[in-house]
Write a structure and sequence with these properties.
By secondary structure, the chain is mainly α. The chain has 17 helices and no strands. It is globular and about 50 Å long. The N and C termini lie far apart (47 Å).
């Protein structure tokens, strides 16, 4: 009985520390590469876009390994440990090629962490009738706290600290993995056969492009937002404050998302969240004051904190029962993988050719395209388009 009671706490602590680790490294990595290493915007964009590309390739492989071994916790502990130790060489490398190579190696292991842990958590949630959002919100809290803390510490101790803090956080996570549930069978994903069925569904395909256009800028912003704050005159501590406000605002919205979706419907939530995200990016293009940026960071909580659970519900609702997990995997790869890579890589080029403010105009344009696709999907396409034809 005691182990059952500890499970929710262990899962919550895992999400807190894993995103604490992500928050120590990825938001400040671009600042480190620019200030300490002296790379160009295009080079930074290339390095930061490695992870999404590798994720598209590596995630299905890690899924196959989990299905074959039936030991997702062992896979998770292995990838956490390897990710932690692989990050340390970042602190001593200064050549562009070596940084690309170590980024590929880090992304190979790190790409398994979130999907494998989410699979374990979703198995537990389905078995116990709990709310996934109540666990995932601790990730938002951990991310917000870590960037705030690291922004202040890096100001005095140097940016190389982010690599060692990342390693420490991931090693701490391995402790909580040992007490996570063992189940691994209920969410197996057959990407090949599932993909063939899902590509015959117009609503699903159109939503993948929506996810590409909306999630791409959101994830890419995590890489460039630190540079943007400094462009406006902010310090490293100021970068930490901005991320604390932005990422921290996600948690309460995730907590409220279930009730709002039930009351308003996922269609209105998706449209509103995408619209708010688009307005935010275009506002950043206008070169606002630092105070104005801080004041509008709550838009991230509204856009991400509501879009993620509503999108997940929408995907699971339109997908056939036997390929729901495949649909979620493809949806995640399209936005978190391909969309993030595209916006991060192209963003680096725009940063070099124009400015960071031009980069956010690009983000706003991408999100507006996503809004148009979303409106067509939800309001124009017939409901029958959500399912493959009987002949298929």
């Amino acid at each position: 009985m005691k182990s059952i009671e500890r499970t929710p706490l262990n899962i919550s602590l895992f999400y807190f520390f894993i995103f604490f680790g992500f928050g120590t490294l990825f938001p400040l990595l671009s600042v480190y590469l620019k200030q300490d290493v002296g790379l160009t915007g295009t080079q930074i964009g290339a390095i930061m876009s490695v992870s999404p590309v590798v994720m598209i390739i590596a995630q299905p492989i890690w899924g196959i390994i989990c299905d074959y071994t039936r030991r997702p916790r062992a896979v998770l502990i292995f990838t956490l440990t390897m990710s932690g130790f692989v990050a340390i060489p970042f602190a001593v490398m200064d050549s562009y090629i070596s940084l690309i190579l170590i980024s590929i190696l880090l992304a190979t292991f790190q790409s398994a962490i979130v999907p494998v842990s989410d699979s374990i958590t979703l198995n537990y949630v389905m078995a116990t009738k709990k709310d996934y959002g109540n666990f995932r919100l601790w990730g938002a809290v951990g991310f917000a706290v870590s960037v705030f803390v690291m922004g202040s510490l890096a100001e005095t101790l140097g940016l190389k600290l982010i690599f060692f803090s990342f390693t420490a956080a991931l090693l701490i996570c391995t402790i909580f993995v040992l007490s996570m549930p063992k189940e691994s069978n209920s969410l197996q994903v057959d990407l090949r056969s599932g993909f063939i069925r899902l590509i015959k569904m117009p609503k699903f395909i159109l939503f993948l492009f929506t996810t590409f256009s909306v999630f791409g800028p959101i994830h890419s912003n995590n890489f460039y937002f630190g540079l943007y704050i400094q462009e406006l005159g902010g310090t490293l501590a100021g970068v930490g404050i901005a991320f604390l406000l932005a990422a921290g605002s996600e948690a309460p919205f995730m907590k409220l998302s279930g009730g709002w979706i039930r009351r308003l419907g996922y269609e209105k939530i998706l449209i509103a969240a995408t619209l708010i995200s688009s307005i935010r990016w275009f506002y950043y293009f206008t070169e606002p004051t630092l105070v104005g940026v801080y004041a509008t960071t709550i838009a991230q909580g509204f856009s991400i904190g509501l879009f993620i659970p509503a999108a997940l519900q929408y995907v699971r609702e339109i997908a056939p029962d036997d390929v729901k997990a495949t649909a979620v995997a493809l949806y995640s790869s399209m936005g978190n993988g391909l969309g993030s890579w595209f916006c991060t890589f192209i963003g680096g080029i725009i940063y070099d050719a124009h400015s960071l403010f031009g980069l956010y105009f690009f983000f706003g344009t991408m999100t507006t395209i996503g809004l148009i696709l979303l409106f067509i999907n939800l309001k124009v396409l017939p409901e029958g388009a959500a399912r493959p034809s009987p002949s298929s």
